[in-house]
Amino acid sequence: MVRYSPETGSRRMVSLALKCEVAAVSLPDLVRRTLRDEVLSTSAYHVAEAAGMVKLDAMENPYPLPAALQEELGRLAARAPLNRYPDADATRLRAALKASLDVPDGVQLMLGNGSDELIQVLALACARPGAVMLGVEPSFAMYPIVARTCGLRFVGVPLRADFSLDADAVIAALRRERPALVFIAYPNNPTGNRFDERAIERIIAAAPGIVVVDEAYHPFAQATFLARLGEHPNLLVMRTLSKLGLAGLRLGVLIGAADWIAELNKLRLPYNVNVLTQLFAEHILKHDDVLREQAAAIRSSRAQLFERLQQVPGVHAYPSDANFILFRVAGADAVFEALKRGGVLIKKLAGSHPALTDCLRVTVGTPDENAAFLDALAAARAS
Ligand SMILES: Cc1ncc(COP(=O)(O)O)c(C=O)c1O
Fold first, then answer.
1. Residue of the CA atom closest to atom 7 of ligand 1
2. Parallel/antiparallel/unpaired status of strands 359-363 and 315-317
3. Ligand 1 near 189 CB (within 6 A)
4. Ligand 1 within 6 A of 254 CB?
5. What's the pLDDT band for 8 if we cut at 50, 70, 90?
6. Domains of the chain (ranges plus CATH)?
């Protein structure tokens, strides 16, 4: 339909046929008939506008890097070879991550532009016709979004009412659905709890394909399946630097047997981890004690915030091993809006899943931010 124009010898594109066809349909119709149904029927992941707010909606670390480290990064940025593509294999950064994350010998790392990208790579790799991704519900919203947009059917197995993992129900679903891919967030988002290790072990043993234990919140739980990689050939562990304090860098890590990583690497786009991310992450990891201290501060603030939340009349807070707390409160929609008017942005989960009726999720911030949130919550409850 697009033709080369011989008269001028230039690469002028003549799109007569295309113009005629396109003229006959409206643009929305053209979009609808061109794109896949899975794309058209999916809602984009919603990111709320947060300018000027106390931002407690996205599980970010509230602490900046120390000034001296920021200055070192500034100097590194000034000399960064931005005219060159990054190291496609990020060899030095992978070595630094291997040491910092205490990755056992004999397994490989693959890096993503955030762990979101790694979820997508895994889904693309498994998307045979009819393939299934299995997860629990409620859990991380991106699992079903990525599954559907990559052409997998998503099967969600409900958690129990107390948000614990129903291993028998998951194993029954594994036998019925034969998923190529299973995601278990450990601790789980948005519920904040860490599922029973034994239950996860049983699921890994019963799964017919890959089980990814997504340890995004590891800095706040300090429990890991990394040491079990050698025991289960179908286990992969996923980490991210986002929650540790580097959300802006976008760096996720998938860890597993070389046989998996070598194949999955074929789907990773070349240069997916940019020059600045590689430079900065490698340098910051030399000072990873800073990030670990910040995580420790967040863990102790979490305990205080949980205690204070429990004291708010009408609020039921769920214990958390992550850097956020899920809580239930009557009229959650109105409470969420009142908090927003009071300048505090948290996450509204009510409406996203039946098990999350009247649920809100607050990220653990600095002590001042947590106090601002609690004051705004008290004011919202009183109004
Ligand atoms: C369980 C879980 N996994 C993965 C991610 C994605 O993290 P990243 O910033 O590395 O894409 C999140 C983000 O909230 C998450 O909650």
1. 115
2. unpaired
3. yes
4. no
5. very low
6. 54-63+289-382 (3.90.1150.10), 79-287 (3.40.640.10)
